[in-house]
Amino acid sequence: TIERCAGQNDHTFFSLCAMGKDCSDKTLRIILAAIGVSSLAFAVAIYVGTLNPSSRSSDGGHTAAAVYPWDVEDVSASVRSFIDSVNASCIDANHYYLTRQTHVAGSARDFETAEWMNNVMKDASLPSRIDTYNVMLSQQNGHNLKAWWSNGSYDARLEEAIIDEDPSSGLSSIPTMHGYAPSGNVTGEVVYVNYGHQSDFEYLSNMGVDLKGKIALARYGQNFRGIKVEMAEKYGMAGVLIYSDPADSGFSVGPEVPEGPFGTKWSVQRGSVHFLQLGPGDPTTPFFASTPENEGRRLGLDEIETLPSIPSQPISWGDAEPILRTLAGMKAPEHWQGGLPFEYYIGPGPVKVNLFVNSSYIMTPIWNVMGMIEGSEEPDRWVVLGNHRDAWTFGGVDPSSGSAPMAEIARAVGDLVRAGWRPRRSIVLGNWDAEEWALVGSTEYVEDHYDEIRNKVVAYLNVDEAVVGQFSFRLLSTPSLSDFLINVAKHIPIPEHIQERPLPSFTAGSSASSEDGAAPVLCRGCNTVYEYWLHGQSVIASRSGSPPPPSPWSSNVGSGSDYTPFFQFAGVPSCDLRFTGDYSGYGVYHSNYDSYSFVSKQLDPGFGLHKALAQYWGAAAMILADTEVLPFNYVAYGVEMKRGLAKFAAEVEEKGLTSGVLKAAYTQLSSAVSAFSDAASALNSRLASLRSSSTSVSPSRISEVNDALMSAERAFLSSEGLPGREWYRHFIFAPAMDLGYGAATFPAVMDGVLNYNSTQIEEGVRLTVERIEAATLILSSTATVA
Taking CA 446 as the corner, what is the angle to CA 444 and CA 447, rounded to the nearest 5 degrees? Predict the structure, then answer.
């Protein structure tokens, strides 16, 4: 069952931008003059992009435009055939195979899963290969944590309990560890630092709490774990313990596994503490790939800026409880209090701990699996689907809930290929390795094939954790892609048995009954992903007293998964798709309990949501590959930039940074955003007026407008990168320096705000305006002559 289930055009328009060269106004005008303005006088009768300005939901998420020319009959017979052929039982079988054993990056089992995925693609008649990179990871060889106070002591367990209902929970040999955490043997008083935000450390410093030489106790949530360690290091602390508080992911939120999706007393979240906010990938090869020809260029350990220098250790709340109970000193603020049944104090001490971590850096091969369906008309334009394969333990949700659907997409699309179907553009499947460490496999691939990706890749569609919960859907997206993706969701069915699932008892509103007195269900009558998505977000809006959004909303792309190198380094419009709960994350994340048993019994019995995700993911790729004119909407970009302007103004005022110079900088940025928005609206209006035109459209002119739409995104990048973190090149969105995952709009500007640095803000505005003006010129030139 497992085997069967898993059984050229010349594009030159704005090629300098596509190749990552300088896209200044002067350069673009030279290009336009060389091409000849008359070459852009075309009519586009088959445009399928969003043609009206976007609206906003009450919470600020981007929503689809009210008018979007996309009807059910526009879904081709091939796309419908694909949707109908996706098989939940096959996804179940794929998932079972992938999660039978732990498969940490670089391990023998990791290589076995790479070979399996490669064979899945070959069996589907897709040309495929395994790309190997030699990278630096780490391994933990031992650890110990002991706490003591005036009248007692505690030896931490540092391991997870076996759950009888989950047979795999006793099979893992992966220690509770932080990837890239250095060795250390440190002793000191403990200080509770809440989530370890920069603002948390600033609060402690302002309150006179002595941090130097102390051991930080932080709780998971709200920001990337590497941020917590970096901040502790910055404030002179000797080591870091990070635990999962029940208020965030345990009994305070809902039932623990196996009865619910939340962590137990002994659940531990493994994970990397690489400084992702400074740049992902192999720490020894920033900006270039870990290939044999680059061996001599590797950085030495003393040259690496993205790894911590102090030891850290993840622990359970069971191990954190004796330490938290014994802390004294100042009482923690109300919003620092957690879910354990006592008041939290900050310290320092009187409890002290000794943290011992024995780890080593290792060089190891990792394996990306690459498959392709070559396009029939534009083989040198690619739509890329990506998912990573490596896991911290069994990878039930992260990442096999995405890997299993990818294998099923390969099988289903392979059936179409054998029947004679070929997409207009090529479709590439990328199954990455070592994502859990620092997005390593995907980053090495993008750095290795940078020019090719800049020239060829139309869009990147990522799925990491396909199903995190049953409540709704979540889309992270480049604004230019979001309207297209939201509307594709209208054509993806939700199985009836999913609609009728009882609403989980821990979900807000589950105590209410329906009008007929029956127990509430997830979403009766939600026949499509679009309706399911909108219903969940409407419920969330109602809890805050906000009106329901007119359509589902999306959020901007920051970092945290494999879309990062495609978007942040190469300027490719990107997204990330997942079904989600109405709670933050899932409590067994990166633990031994993230298993086949958890997914198949608790999260998605029957794999119906996994099926819907595979249908959505594959259909979106097929439609993007076949649509003649790319459905990118830059009006949505203008909306997001105006929202970023408002946040910039508010934070400058909050931090007391207002000055005449900064007001002038704000005015300059605001003017650039307005000009961009006007150009995007003009382009959309022009294309809208030509949609019904009967004018013949030549393939060369369609290629020109598509290349312009691609180049507009690339124009937001600078080869110089963001000041202080040069690997990130996108000047409109990047991971916020104090979050690591979530997006900051105008990152070069907001980094200065975070640092209370007016000069840095002013320079950030100047650099950002340059990028906006470059993109504006592309849009306005296209709209003027269309």
Answer: 65
CA quadruple 772, 725, 568, 222: dihedral, nearest 10: -110
Q: Which of 386, 392, 405, 394 has the alpha carbon at shortest distance from 579?
A: 405
Residue closest to 690 by CA, chosen among 7, 21, 48 = 48
Determine the pLDDT at residue 63. Answer: 53
Instruction: Go through the chain and tell me how many residues it has.
Output: 786
Pairwise CA distance, residues 202 & 217, whole Å: 16
Which listed residue (435, 444, 465, 628) is catalytic? 435
Give how far Cα 328 sits from Cα of 154, 219, 332, 344, 624, Å.
17, 18, 10, 9, 58
- In terms of Cα–Cα distance, which of 594, 593, 609, 584 is closest to 467? 609
Which of these ranges, 473-477, 489-493, 660-664, 773-777, has the smallest mean pLDDT? 660-664
pLDDT value for 514: 47
- Residue 256 appears among annotated catalytic residues: no
Q: pLDDT digit string (tens) for 411-434?
A: 999 999 999 999 999 999 999 999
203-227: per-residue pLDDT in tens? 999 999 999 999 999 999 999 999 9
C-alpha–C-alpha distance, residues 541 and 519, integer Å:
22
693 alpha carbon, distance to own chain's centre: 39
pTM for this predicted structure: 0.91
The overall average pLDDT reported for the chain is 88
Q: How far apart are CA 430 and CA 412, in angstroms?
A: 16
Residues linked to residue 555 through DSSP beta bridges, in sequence order: 476
Q: Is residue 633 a contact partner of residue 479, using CB atoms and an 8 Å limit? A: yes
For 21-25, 84-88, 568-572, 752-756, which range has the lowest pLDDT when averaged over its residues? 21-25
Put residue 381 in one of left, alpha, beta given phi > 0 → left and psi -120 to 50 → alpha. beta
Helix, strand, or coil here: 179?
Answer: strand
Nearest one of 450, 451, 379 to 703, comparing CA atoms = 379
Provide the H-helix boundaries in 489-603: 496-499, 529-543, 563-564, 596-597
3-state secondary structure at position 266: coil
Q: Are 385 and 426 in contact (CB under 8 A)?
A: no
Neighbours of 212 (CB within 10 A): 9
Q: State the pLDDT at residue 695.
A: 67
Cis preceding-peptide flag for 333 (omega within 30 of 0)? no
Distances, alpha carbon 111 to alpha carbons 8, 127, 282, 410, 594, in Å = 35, 19, 18, 19, 20
